[in-house]
Amino acid sequence: MTEPRKLLNDCFLHDKDRLRHDDVLTLLRERISTVAGTETIVLEAACGRILAQPIIAPRNVPLSDNAAVDGYAFCHADFKAVGGWFEVADRVAAGHARKQAMPRQTAARIFTGAAMPDGLDTVAMQEDCEPHIQNDRPFVAIPPGLKQGANCRKSGEDVLEGTTVLVAGDSLRAQDLAAIASLGISEVVVYRKLKVALLSTGDELLRPAPGVAPQPGQVFDANFFMLKGLLETLPVVVTDFGILPDDARLIRETISTAAAGHDMILTSGGASRGDEDHIITALDALGQRHLWQLAIKPGRPMTMGQIGDCVFVGLPGNPVAAFVCFLLYVRQIILSLQGSAWHDPVRFPVKAAFAIARKKPDRREFLRGILGRAEPDTLSVTKFDRDGSGLITSLREADGLIEIPEAVTQIEPGDTVSFIPFTELGLPSR
Ligand code: AMP
Ligand code: MG
């Protein structure tokens, strides 16, 4: 005799009872706190890392007033007295600052980046000046009309001593490293990289390898490569747990092992409530489930919870859904676990160059959007023309996601829609 199947309520939830996108974000924002410890690293290794301590300028940048062009430095107040005719009393190149003040009413030949000699405040460009030798001594005729301070960069004009340049939680970009280096700082305190265990589930999956030919029904494990690539845009160390078959015991055991040594487990596949989906039962057996079944498309089966201190995220198996859920949620979870400030992607209002006759209410849809031009100066967006959560091509062709809110059930060409470029979600542009 077979046991009667339990009625699983979640399976029959209506979109209106499922957790909405904004509620998921609120939940994540409120619940996720920094777990990663900190470490001190050299600046050249810090691109993409998240700062754990603020950077406060220990000195002015630039340190000294200096010339912005090649030319002649002079004291603006002397100009009238000498009628623009200065004796050239020194030559100052970048990196060779003059120690003493200049003799009164003289100019200095100066080159870009050289520190302004004491007493001089203005630089005339060499192209505008006429040098002369008179009695074996060099002179220069400087044209009138220059403002005091012209062609001179002031000490501190980039950063003033004491300024907070970056705060804890900032992700370090190349330009931030330049700013930190310009302050003379060579080491930074950052959050430790998060250890992420990555695994794919499904009896049908196999890894591509030389000579490997798929049998009918087999599917290459695209998600592993996609998710590893996405993870590598963030400060994480990935452990590849390979492909697990749809075997409840094996899945539970592997997840339990992974939880012991990682800050996060990221799985794909097996997160729905089919007979061959064992992710939810494994999570429920080992830890707590915080969310499952979202009112979004694609990505409804995504689940999130924890096993001890290890965050667990179960992504849907469909590559498109896994990709979208990673960008919308997983990325921010990883950043928040490492002390990063919450970042809402900027949404751009763009004209729709497509129509949707009927969309289900109560769920938010994220379409793959391709930018185009409506008129010479107006951007438009069209959606990838075929639906289907398995079409990896849609992810490759798209420039970002078109976000259709719950309440909208219809789109007509020319309507304004919200467009989130992939670059807003941390992806490089093509
Ligand atoms: P599931 O979420 O396990 O029901 O899988 C949904 C769909 O995604 C199925 O068609 C799977 O074959 C496919 N799928 C699952 N995992 C992967 C993967 N790692 N790479 C490519 N396709 C996958
Ligand atoms: Mg499966």
- Counted by DSSP, the helix tally is 8
Overall morphology: elongated
The CATH architecture classification of the largest domain is 3-Layer(aba) Sandwich
- Main sheet strand line-up: 7-4-6-5-9-8
Average residue pLDDT: 94
CATH H-level superfamily of the largest domain? MoaB/Mog-like domain
Could you give the topology of this structure?
Blueprint: H1 21-31, E1 38-42, E2 55-56, E3 66-67, E4 71-74, H2 79-82, E5 85-92, E6 106-110, E7 122-125, E8 130-134, E9 137-141, E10 152-153, E11 164-166, H3 174-182, E12 187-191, E13 194-201, E14 205-206, E15 219-220, H4 222-231, E16 236-244, H5 248-261, E17 264-268, H6 279-286, E18 288-292, E19 296-297, E20 303-307, E21 310-315, H7 319-337, E22 348-352, E23 364-375, E24 378-383, H8 392-397, E25 400-404, E26 416-421
Parallel strand pairs: 5-6, 13-16, 13-17, 14-15, 17-21, 19-23, 22-24
Antiparallel strand pairs: 1-12, 2-11, 3-10, 4-6, 4-7, 5-9, 8-9, 18-20, 20-21, 22-26, 23-24, 23-25, 25-26
Helix pairs in contact: 4-7, 5-6
What does this protein structure show overall?
By secondary structure, the protein is of the alpha/beta class. It folds into four domains: 21-37 and 193-337, MoaB/Mog-like domain (Molybdenum Cofactor Biosythetic Enzyme, Chain A, 3-Layer(aba) Sandwich), CATH 3.40.980.10; 38-61 and 170-191, Molybdopterin biosynthesis moea protein, domain 2; 66-153, Molybdopterin biosynthesis moea protein, domain 3 (Molybdopterin biosynthesis moeA protein, domain 3, Beta Complex), CATH 2.170.190; 348-425, MoeA, C-terminal, domain IV (Beta-clip). Helix content is 19%, strand content 30%. It contains eight helices and 26 strands. The chain has helices spanning 21-31, 79-82, 174-182, 222-231, 248-261, 279-286, 319-337, 392-397, and strands spanning 38-42, 55-56, 66-67, 71-74, 85-92, 106-110, 122-125, 130-134, 137-141, 152-153, 164-166, 187-191, 194-201, 205-206, 219-220, 236-244, 264-268, 288-292, 296-297, 303-307, 310-315, 348-352, 364-375, 378-383, 400-404, 416-421. A six-stranded mixed sheet has the order 7-4-6-5-9-8, with no helix packed on it. The longest helix is centred in the C-terminal third of the chain and has 19 residues, at 319-337. It is elongated and about 100 Å long. The two termini are 58 Å apart. Residues 1-11 have low confidence and may be disordered. Adenosine monophosphate is lined by residues 200, 202, 204-205, 219, 221-224, 268-272, 316-319, 390.
